[in-house]
Amino acid sequence: MKFEKLGDNKIRITLTIQDLAEKHIDFHSFMSNNIETQDILLDMLDEAKKQIGFDAEDSNLKIEALALADTNFVFIITKLAPETDKGKSFKRKLMIKRKCINPSTTQAIYIFHSFEDFCSLLNFIKQRNLLEFCKDIADNVELYSYKNNYYLLMNNIHAELINEIKFYTFITEFAKCITNSKVFASKLKECGSLIMKNNALEIGFENFVKKTS
Fold first, then answer.
1. Parallel, antiparallel, or unpaired for β 94-99 and 61-67?
2. 24 close to 78: Cβ distance less than 8 angstroms
3. Residue 78 CB: number of other CB atoms within 10 A?
């Protein structure tokens, strides 16, 4: 775990997959709104105070949680201006903004702004020799076209946590996660055009990734 001071009121905390494992942090649980999330953040803030003198007590905080393609996880923590209303008891507020990770553990939808972006993902997977892993990430993976964008719909995700994290981090280089995936999945099936059924990643490999001898 790495702590960096970005200013008097802002710090950056970087964690690796190994940090998550050592601290027994389930990243999917962390990325949902629950009490466990706040406990983890408070522990990190205590450590930040010890290591770099960032004192967040009696401060409202804005927290940005980002997953990066190199499998690191970054938290930007900013102390907000103090509330000045007199006569009111102070209660710390944690405003958490999460990016790119769908809290659902069984379904996820990613939007590609062009078909070329989807092909770029396929080529990235090929370069990293991740095709066999991607075959097992979900029971059903489909590609839809809807309003000039492309959507990868993954159902019944069942990979182990660390493998899920790898996939969710590198895919964000090419696509963005859609929130309310269950509602939007129904919209895709009703109004979108199904391009690749059941195993979209494998079909994409067979048809849109150049073979090498």
1. parallel
2. no
3. 17
- Measured over the CA atoms of residue 210, residue 196, residue 125 and residue 65, the dihedral's sign is positive
108 touches 140 (CB < 8 A) = no
> Which domains does the chain carry?
2-99 (no CATH), 107-208 (3.30.70.1950)
pLDDT digits (tens, 9 = 90+) for 151-163: 999 888 765 544 5
Strands 73-79 and 107-112: unpaired
pTM: 0.54
Mean pLDDT of all residues in 35-62: 83
Distances (CA, A) of 200 to 47, 106, 158, 205: 44, 17, 17, 9
Quote the strand ranges of the chain, DSSP E. 2-7, 10-15, 61-67, 73-79, 94-99, 107-112, 138-146, 149-157, 176-177, 193-196
